[in-house]
Amino acid sequence: MTIEKKTARVTIMNKNKKFVLILNIFLLYCFFITPAFSISTAVKAEMDYKLLLKQLRFSTIAIENFANAEQKKKFDEIKTLFRDASAEHYGQRYEIAFNKFNKVKEDLLPLLDELTLIYLKRSRDILDSTAKQAFDIIIKYSNDTPFAKNFKYPFDPIENRKGYDEKEYHFYYDRSKIENFLNNGYQNLAQANILYNNADFIYLKSQKKKNREDLNSILKQYTEIIKVCRLAKMYGIEIYKIFNDDKTSEILIKHRISVKNIKPVFDDRIPDDYKPDAADNELTILDDEKNLHLQKE
Fold it and tell me: Is 229 contained in some domain?
């Protein structure tokens, strides 16, 4: 390659470097002269929209299953405010939307606190209501008790007599499951209480002025507590299903369904007081299930 060609090549490369440099400077200039607040707010508004939409969908099930009339009215007001904020967001009025989304969060927090306390109480009630019978079974049907020995006696066909009550026979085999369920239920309840009584969580709630990150953190904590409470309640409800296992056949015949289709509305193994909790654990609304059942009849 001749010196002239090398020189021309170097000149072109230098021009390309200058062009790239000028382009980068131009892009940086455009970025910084564009109001940073506007861009940041647009992104935050979009994130808040998605967060609140998910939160309201999650909360709807809890509201429908457990809230009183006043709480349901408050939730409707919050949904109206969210709808207005979303309209501003859709219309690209991001600063207005951002402020309204914050207002939705602020209004939602007290309602979620009330709901969370309901979940904590109902979790405790369900587990405590099973505890006495559960411990009676755990103690009575262990291998080293006289009652367990009765299950090993042969059936007397002449007298048509067994050494045990058929309705209680399964407790001998289910006692360890009951013990595990009770243990897991109370552990989840304890975890939910730890989350609710967390010092940082209490501090954030106590602040009069909360920034966006504070509000989001509190919302997520409430959601987590409710999820853990649902686990606690699930174990208590499963214990009830074991207690009343003898009703299973009756349920299947009465409603003409299979075992896998036993919904809470049909499930008479569960006390009526706790059927809303069973439906809630399945992310359904008991009243909706009842109405659907009536329509089918």
Answer: yes
* Cα–Cα dist 141/176, whole Å: 10
Task: Answer for the pair 251, 140: CB distance below 8 angstroms, yes or no.
Answer: no
Express each pLDDT in 96-115 by its tens digit: 999 999 999 999 999 999 99
Span 126-141, pLDDT tens digits: 999 999 999 998 888 7
Range of the domain at 259: 109-296
At residue 64, what is the residue type? E
Judged against a pLDDT cut of 80, whether residue 149 lies above it is answered with: no
**Is residue 28 domain-resident?**
no
Let me know if residue 71 belongs to a domain: no
Per-residue b or e along 127-147, where b marks 16 or more CB atoms closer than 10 Å to that residue's CB: bebbeeebeebeeebeeeeeb
Burial environment of residue 27 by CB neighbours within 10 A (0 to 12, 13 to 18, 19 or more): exposed
Q: What is the pLDDT of residues 28-39, one digit of tens each?
A: 544 444 444 445
Whether 198 maps to a domain, the answer reads: yes
Number of domains in the chain: 1
Cα separation, 108 vs 77, whole angstroms: 10
Task: Give this prediction's pTM.
Answer: 0.80
**For 251-288, how does the pLDDT look when each residue is reduced to its tens digit (9 = 90+)?**
898 888 888 788 898 899 999 999 999 999 999 999 88
